[in-house]
Amino acid sequence: MSTRQWSPSRLRIFFVATLIGLSLITLSHVVRAAPQMIYDDALAAGWADYSWATVNLQATAPVHSGSHSIAVTYGAWQGLYLHHPGQSTIGFTYLRFFAHGGSAGGHRLRSHRGGI
After folding, report:
1. Which helix (H) or strand (E) segment is 54 a member of?
2. What does the domain layout of the chain look like in residue ranges?
3. Can you give the pLDDT of all 116 residues of the chain as single tens digits?
């Protein structure tokens, strides 16, 4: 039985081609989650308000769409915290929301995803 000797340059080409092929296979099987509504005039099923600030989940103004919005009055070290036990983030690629910072503007906003 004879063994085939591959030159280092052929091995590199084979290795790169294999990686590209595996990458294309992996990219074609990316899991994409269906859009998840968290709030639409009320918190969606399974979501809870764990905020440590004054929160009104039924504010009538300002409203981006629908008839209600979430109004939050912050003090020092306070925040809005919406929680869903066991909500997986697999397949989600972005978070979209609308915020009205008041007429003065210039407010800083931070979003955090807890757990994996």
Report:
1. strand 54-59
2. 32-116
3. 555 666 666 666 766 676 666 666 555 556 677 888 899 999 999 999 999 999 999 999 989 889 999 999 888 888 899 998 888 888 888 888 888 877 777 777 777 776 54
